[in-house]
Here is the input.
Amino acid sequence: MLGLVSGATIVIYGVAQLADTRFPRWLGLLGLAGGVLTFVGGIALAYSRFSATAMIVNMPAGILTMSWMLALGIHVWIRPVFLLALPGQAPPSGSAWAPTIGGLATEIGRRRAAVASGRSEIPVVGREGAVDFIMMLTRNDRTVADADELVDPVIGWGVKHIGFKDIGVPTAVMRSVVRKVRAARAISYLEVVSTAPEAVTRSLEAGRDLGVDRILGGTDIAAAKGILNDLTGYYPFPGLPVGHPTRLGGSPALVADHCRAARAAGCGGVDLLAYRATDADPLDLVRAAHGALSGGRLIVAGSVNSRERIHALAAAGADAFTIGSAAFDGSFSPSKGALRSQIRDILEACETAPKIIA
Here is the structure.
């Protein structure tokens, strides 16, 4: 009976780990194999006691189960809670990491140093400020080739909103990004690049198939409704976006009308290209959108490249903004070269931004 219950329990754990993207697939398979053999071994013991047949089944079952328990213990110890390492360090990739004596010794040394220096083992993810920072893993309107390798360190540095675009990388990389963002309990975004109807439709379908939390861009709300069904995670462009890189035409009154229409259709908010405006002052557009959204979220995208602009957006009523190229190119903080330093300064600007006065 013990073998049957133990085997069934381990099988359930193995299946759960296969379904949970925070765990590497091999770990779930190892648990599943150990659980099945343990269950079969329990049946063999019930019918033939400690026969040679029962031992042939139960000995490898025990080895697999103990190996699974050991690997699971090491894995969750190295990547606790959100499976993040110390701030500024990239944790091992879930699917590629394998425990080694050298790696374990390195981890022990790292943790001792962390305790001695008083650093927290788990970073505070998503420090709240007056406005949220959406880190776009993009440069020049294309997702960077190593986007999936950047997710863990960026989240470890304090970012809880991660976005990308559906051009620049294959679908497998985009799926990996979404999987890692979800595993860290952060929020994923896909931003539509093109303004052409056919391309926008493909982007909306890609976002739906990838399972991203929020899709930004596009203007055809009816088409988005047909593809997404639920529009609470959809943030269309208000105004008149044209070209590539996209410029934004339209007056504050037109932007306000589009915001009201988006909310009436059930959209979660809008994605405003304020600093790409050609017909109005960017902050006038932000104020108009904020006043018309009636509880919806106002995200500002494009050319947000300084502390002053972040503070101005927060004061005008923006809820969030996106930055990609300015962080990767180092233009947000020109005197600093590391991506971590750029992100740290952006987060600090969020924390010190004024409350809404619009």
Notes: The chain has a mean pLDDT of 83. Residues 52-78 form the longest helix (27 residues).
